[in-house]
Amino acid sequence: MANDSAGIQGAQIVVDGVGKRYGRHTALESVTTTFDPGQRVGIVGESGSGKSTLARLVMGLERPTSGAIVVDGLELGQRLATPSGRRDYWRRVQLVQQDTASSFNPRFTFARALSVPAQRLLGLDLRAAETEAARVVDAVGLPDRLLEARPAQLSGGQRQRMALARALVVRPSVLVCDEAVSALDVSAQGRVLNLVKTYAVETGATLVFISHGLPATAFVSEEMVVMYRGRLVERGDTDTLMAAPTDDYTAGLVASYRELAAT
Amino acid sequence: MSEKQSAAEQVVLEVHGLDVRYGDHHVVKDVSLSVRPGERVAVVGESGSGKSSLVTAIAGLLSDDVATVTARGARLLGEPLDLSAQRRRVPRRRPGVSMILQDAMTSLDPLWSVGSQLVAVLRAAQRLGRAEAGAEAERRLAELGLPDPGRVMKARPAELSGGMRQRAMIATALSSDPRLLLADEPTSALDVSVAVATMKALVATTDDHGAALLLVSHDLELCRRYTDRLLVMFRGELVEDIATARLGEAEHPYTRGLLACVPTLDSARADLLPVMDESLMLESA
Predict the structure, then answer these.
(1) What is the 3-state secondary structure of B71-87?
(2) N or C terminus: fewer CB in 10 A for chain B?
(3) Of A188, A212, A219, which is closest to B192 when you measure between CB atoms?
(4) Nearest CA of chain A to the CA of B207: how many Å?
(5) Which of B49, B220, B242, B275 to mutate to test the interface with A (most CBs of A within 10 A)?
(6) In this predicted model, what pLDDT tens digit does every residue of A160-200 receive, in sequence order?
(7) Which of B261, B273, B282 is the mutation pick for testing A, counting most A CBs within 10 A?
(8) B204 and chain A: CB distance < 8 Å anywhere?
């Protein structure tokens, strides 16, 4: 995947005092953090801690209720106000989600699901887009023949790798993974985690890796953010944070894993 | 002590040559196992390995319009047990056995308070009066470490967190004082710190009640910590039956692969994670 680096253009994402409310429910409260170009940042926290809300806001799929997300100096809402702005942002920033069954159109073959974004976002013709699709499918370790399959014909692990392939086909400079391995068996998890980390390391892309699983997140990330009940409670270097967490919630989480491992 | 009772003292459950098929799909292949009184046994394996079908068949929850279940023989508490799937509207109860599922939400009635459901089961199982059953229900919820049992009693399932709901479910399952508790992924829907606490409560309470536990889980670390013996399922077969303490001596390549590729806080510092040999993976590459 080394030749991907040609297409990489970094992006600095600043999350500035961002809050998100749904009616009376506060999903996110005054979160401030930065994702710098090429950084690998893990975000951990339990369900309901606001991790996925943060991912959706960074993707521009929702608007913050307060505060702002600023990408390379321009507020994200303004950036996404024009068709060319949207095309540019979603070519550079790609999301892989947990539920891959619902993120593919069930009627399309994977050849089509992968070559359409390559045509639209990279401006390739159909033949070049199909070549790109085949290249990323090979890179995620899936056989070519699966390009002719449809979502229902693949196992969960295969479909998850296909979702990663679709994100990588446009050579994103920011890859956001939201519980991208949580539904997978451990034997399949390791492969996807290795792919995600390798892509970021080899291309210099930014990785925002969201998961409730501490070991997987620690594996891919250099820095970790801990979320608890809509707040960012801690951010730090991954090794330091695991060795000496300063927040009580983080300490409890690390201790749970240490206890399990102490057999 | 009669002969029947002493046999029941040695094994709670004994299954010989169990097969489960869904049409042409053979998901459990010639599996034999036994569970001793008070023993905690985990059935581990990945999706599609047949672990859930195995335990669901033992619970008598598979009906013959979806599954064919056959066994060379089975005994529960010393009595012969018919494992063959049969057609019935209401699953047949197995005396001395209770079961809990992954999400308590699917087992509890959403419209009733947790307390009223627990009281109903206690009254039926223990022949208690209403007031007595109420007090007993509260005591049992407290025993599972629920902080405010009075409030939990009044709450409907949706008003509780996943961990609290699962504890309420464990209390309900134990209310008939079963000798064997079957549990299908009881902590998989929970966050790790909650899962560990729930598992501790489950283990402590089954111990106190003298119930054996047959637990299905994909979480090897959790099973390793909290059970006495592991049964490893792979492609429908039972490939390893090993004491948890001796897991390091596991012989089957699949068990060894599984142990190697579970990410831990230590393996997390490696450049790449060890991965399972493709030939041992359930899905085709």
Answers:
(1) CCEEEECCEECCCCCCC
(2) N
(3) A212
(4) 20
(5) B275
(6) 889 999 999 999 999 999 988 877 787 778 888 999 999 99
(7) B273
(8) no
Q: How would you label B106-145 residue by residue, b for 16+ Cβ within 10 Å and e otherwise? A: ebbeeeebbbbbbbbbbbebeebeeeebbebbbebbebbb
A66 at interface of B, judged by CB pairs closer than 8 A:
no
B 149-178 residues with CB < 8 A to A: 162
8-state DSSP, B92: P
DSSP state of B91: P
User: How many angstroms separate the CA of residue A188 from the nearest CA in chain B?
Assistant: 8
Half-sphere exposure of B116 (CA within 13 A, CB side): 9
Side-chain half-sphere exposure of A227, counting CA atoms within 13 A: 30
Residue B1: CB atoms within 10 A of its CB come to 7
Size of interface A-B (CB pairs under 8 A): 104
Q: Is B63 exposed, middle or buried (0-12, 13-18, 19+ CB in 10 A)?
A: middle
Contact predicate A191/B263, CB 8 Å: no
Cβ-Cβ contacts under 8 Å, A233 against chain B: none
**Per-residue confidence band for B285, with pLDDT thresholds at 50, 70 and 90:** very low
Buried b (16+ CB within 10 A) or exposed e, A168-186: bbbbbbbbbbbbbbebbbb
Judged by DSSP in three states, A137 sits in helix
The answer to whether the Cβ–Cβ distance between B272 and A47 falls below 8 Å is: no
Cα–Cα distance measured from residue B215 to residue B39, given in angstroms and rounded to the nearest whole number: 11
Cα–Cα distance list, B201 to A145, B170, B205 (Å): 48, 9, 6
Nearest-Cα residue of chain A relative to residue B269: A219
Share above pLDDT 90 across residues of chain B, in percent, rounded to a whole number: 53
User: Most B CBs within 10 Å: which of A186, A201, A233, A247, as the mutation test of the B interface?
Assistant: A186
ipTM exceeding the 0.85 mark: no
How distant, in Å, are the alpha carbons of A136, A155, A208, B134, B250 from that of A111? 11, 17, 27, 61, 42
| Element counts in chain B: helices (H) and strands (E) | 9, 11
Q: In 3D, which of B185, B183, B191 has the Cα closest to residue B164?
A: B191
The whole-model pTM stands at 0.81
